[in-house]
Amino acid sequence: MGPGCQHESDEDPVDAQLLDMARRTDGFVWYEGSTAQLARSSGSGHGEPLLRTRYNALAATVLDTNLMVTPDTLFPEGSLIVKELMTDASTIGTYAILYKQSSNSYADASGWVWGYVRPNGEVRVSAKDQGAACRNCHTQVGHIDQTLMNISFP
Ligand code: HEC
Q1: How far is the CA of 45 from the centre of ligand 1 (A)?
Q2: Ligand 1 atom closest to 129 (CA)
Q3: Which of 7-11, 89-93, 98-102 has the lowest average pLDDT?
């Protein structure tokens, strides 16, 4: 990787693992039970115009009957939240990933590992940064265990 590279090295195994997990869709539950692509909110830190968010079975244990995130809860260990950031209706530009694994050396103080990877493996922000580019925004007033979907899409 030369200094002219436009992206970080994609060789970190944690980034590769997060991408691998994000690619799978079986057993996931969609926010509000909908696969509809939502227009990104004005507060979104994510450039792509469309998005949709899904939760693995462990993360879904803290969703309520409307399949929104229950206020004042913490996601359990093993939770995986994947936001598919779409450049157009049929193209995923980036997977934004939150994976709760306190034992991971890249986990933040809340146990979240932060992933930001394109489907082709290109790493936009490495998990080794521990969400430094993400957490200021994700700890804004009203966050639930650093998640924001309920604020943008109440
Ligand atoms: C400037 C604010 C901002 C920054 C910076 C930001 N995000 Fe987000 N993110 C949001 C908002 C707002 C949402 C809710 C959905 C939406 O409106 O796009 C969101 C949603 C998400 C979700 C879906 C789960 C949820 O409810 O929060 C994930 C996963 C995610 N972001 C990961 C990341 C990662 C990884 C980074 C850093 C590389 C990051 N975000 C940086 C604002 C931000």
Answers
A1: 6
A2: 38
A3: 7-11
